[in-house]
TrEMBL record:
Residues 1-32 form the signal peptide. Its EC number is 2.4.1.-. It is a single-pass type II membrane protein. Coiled coil: none annotated. PANTHER family: GALACTURONOSYLTRANSFERASE-LIKE 7-RELATED (PTHR13778:SF48), GLYCOSYLTRANSFERASE 8 DOMAIN-CONTAINING PROTEIN (PTHR13778). The keyword Chloroplast does not apply. It is an enzyme of class 2 (transferase). GO terms for cellular component: endomembrane system. Keywords: Glycoprotein, Glycosyltransferase, Membrane, Signal, Signal-anchor, Transferase, Transmembrane, Transmembrane helix. One of its GO terms (molecular function) is glycosyltransferase activity. It is found in: Endomembrane system. Belongs to the glycosyltransferase 8 family. This is Hexosyltransferase. The lineage of its organism: Eukaryota, Viridiplantae, Streptophyta, Embryophyta, Tracheophyta.
Length: 368
């Protein structure tokens, strides 16, 4: 516990340093989307194999450099040059990066690369609210193809209402709503991944999932009690609950989604999600309790292309009861997801891991 307090103290200190850092002061809000190509060897001449966050965090917050992962011989050759994001042979993956989950995001990227047959054909799109994290990625994965997108928290500040779990109110949780706007227009499909998971199978299998006429694909859980995701106020108003008429809505987890961005853009789903967030804010009584999930359920539940459950073995974080551990759901496993309140890196560090946390540990690059 003491460790956690010290660590969060460090995070606040790091935040303050970043806020005060001159490089960010010269960052113009007009550059709403800032990016950089992977593969460019312009700025990082640092030969140290550890990377450091700015200033006082140096030496405390380090990641080992990941090995370089190469394509197998029969991977499709890139047609448009090394780092073009528009290359049609690429698999696109979007992940958020923030200080609190950085260790998880880095492990997730590591897992995707390690288990891919064609790791050099995976292009990462990182959504950040702290632009300094770009150098962390570049130092840890020197040859990674990636782009960093600045997500302005102001974009959702007035749309977020307080939820049952404070962690769910982080603006970056809502960045997934804006992928279609943020990512390059030539990127027509993306896999969105949460930061508390590892992929233990070739991600190109998930990438090639057929979505049919659906905009998003995700594993669906039709046995879960869908009622509980919305309030009585919601269910008692046909103006609200009527949104599900003619649909057979099932719960799905928004931590793993395959998204048809072209279709999303065409049908204006960002605005549809925002509208529900506005209703939650302005309605006489709240219509749901959780954070970014319910608006997704409102817009998409019952209209999701089903993906095999192996691609989201979720809930491994357990619930709020301290020390509670979850087991895997029956069936094969391609992705392990520590959704819930516990995180494997915290439990491993506190020497009180759950049995399945040992499956996360091999992907961890934190420390010397
Ligand atoms: C589903 O959840 C609602 C609200 O929490 C509850 O009232 C209802 O009894 C539950 N239904 C079942 C079948 O468990």
């Amino acid at each position: 516990m003491l460790w956690i307090m010290r660590f969060s103290g460090f995070f606040s200190a790091a935040m303050v340093m970043i806020v005060l850092s001159p490089s960010l002061q010269s960052f113009h809000p007009a550059e709403a989307i800032r990016s950089s190509h992977g593969g460019d060897s312009d700025s990082n001449s640092d030969s140290d194999s550890y990377l450091r966050l700015p200033t006082s965090a140096a030496g405390k917050f380090t990641f080992r450099r990941a090995p370089v992962f190469r394509n197998a011989g029969d991977c499709r050759a890139s047609r448009l040059g090394k780092s073009s994001v528009c290359d049609p042979s690429l698999v696109h993956v979007a992940i958020t990066l923030d200080l609190e989950y950085l260790r998880g995001s880095i492990a997730a990227v590591h897992s995707v690369l390690q288990r891919s047959k064609c790791p050099e054909s995976v292009f990462f799109h990182f959504l950040v609210s702290e632009t300094s994290l770009e150098s962390v990625v570049r130092s840890t994965f020197p040859e990674l193809k990636f782009k960093v997108y600045y997500f302005d928290p102001e974009r959702v500040r007035n749309l977020i209402s307080s939820s049952v779990r404070q962690a769910l109110e982080q603006p970056l949780n809502y960045a997934r709503n804006y992928l279609a706007d943020l990512l390059e227009a030539c990127v027509n499909r993306v896999i969105y991944l949460d930061s508390d998971l590892v992929v233990v199978d070739d991600i190109s299998k998930l990438w090639s999932t057929a979505l049919g006429k659906k905009t998003i694909g995700a594993p669906e859980y039709c046995h879960a009690n869908f009622t509980k995701y919305f309030t009585e106020h919601f269910w008692s108003r046909p103006a609200f609950s009527g949104v599900f008429s003619g649909r057979n809505p099932c719960y799905f987890n928004t931590g793993v989604m395959v998204i048809d961005l072209a279709r999303w853009r065409r049908l204006g789903y960002t605005r549809r999600i925002e509208r529900w967030m506005e209703i939650q804010k302005t309605s006489a009584s709240r219509i749901y309790e959780l954070g970014s999930l319910p608006p997704f359920l409102l817009v998409f539940a019952g209209q999701v292309a089903p993906i095999e459950h192996r691609w989201n073995q979720h809930g491994l974080g357990g619930d709020n009861v301290r020390g509670s551990c979850r087991d895997l759901h029956a069936g094969p496993v391609s992705l392990l997801h520590w959704s819930g309140s516990g995180k494997p890196w915290l439990r491993l560090d506190s020497k009180q891991p759950c049995p399945l946390d040992s499956l996360w540990a091999p992907f961890d690059l934190y420390g010397h």
